Amino acid sequence: MFVKFFDLDLAGLETWCLQHDLPKFTAKQLRNWVWKHGVLDPEHMTNVSAKARLAMQEHLTLHESAVITEQLASDGTQKLLTAWPKPDQSQTLPILDTSRATECVMIPTESRRTACVSSQIGCPVGCKFCATGLGGHDGNLTAGQIVEQVHRLSHLGGGRITNLVFMGMGEPLANYQAVTDAIRRLHEPDAAGLGARRMTISTVGLPPAIRKLLEFEIPVKLALSLHAPTDDLRRELIPWAAYSTIDDLLDACSAWFDRTGREITLEYVLLAGVNDQPEHAHALVDVVRRLRGSVNLLRWNEVDGLPFQRPTDEAVIRFQRVLKQNNINAIIRKSRGRDIAAACGQLKHESKHSA
Questions:
Q1: Can you say whether residue 327 is alpha, beta or left, with left for phi > 0 and alpha for psi between -120 and 50 degrees?
Q2: Fewest C-beta atoms under 10 Å: which of 81, 154, 233, 295?
């Protein structure tokens, strides 16, 4: 039986070693090779015993996905399209299914290397302006598959990952257990070693899941994808908004702040003529005043087949000005990776659409 390496935390890997009559310390040796050095071939793990290398070859799967395409944007952003195996193949080597594909992105800046990962194959939320929902939803990723994305991105070159955002494909809080398990593993010092303040979960807002997150022992950051200042407009843009009001979201976010002391970041994608007018900005002021947080303004990134337009620079600056005049911290975020469709709202099942 093959066990998946990234499904195991350190304690789990130590148990696996003991089950194969290997010393517990072998687990840290293996993690050091895989995480620090990016070595996946046991034969190249020079300080690991021959017995351990054989056990790895016969019983341990490292990367269960395969990279279908790898793209590099003019701004240095890198995007991977990876295919995942069909579910329930724990007894055998995984058989890849190219229709089960996700995208993940590495975003480098002068001071950071941010990994943007997916939590689901497609997305069930179906935001009207987002490419991901066009392909539907084909299930959740496991915790190990989320961790594997981070590992792949961490060894593209350019240094270690400093930050992680769950802003790829899927709604992270709709895959709560896998996402929180992945965060636990990535938080471990001999894995990615990411601190709580360097990991952000972005959600369209599921109040019960936000409240459940209050009990999570690693106080990560939270970003709320709001995108509209009123319930009526939000329901037009985000079908899942029919299940909870903005008031519900604000109550859950206030509880989050009271529990963690962490301010919420509101994400707001500006759509020309839809939600970018002064009246929308003034309505957003009333929303933001009810919680401790800041606003990230994002220009909509073009998606073929969707009936929206990118806002003008003048409209974006005008919108920001209204917020700032009301003492709200509002930042206009630069789109990264647009030329390879790696920017916000552009990730999708490329293999599925091109089949």
A1: left
A2: 233
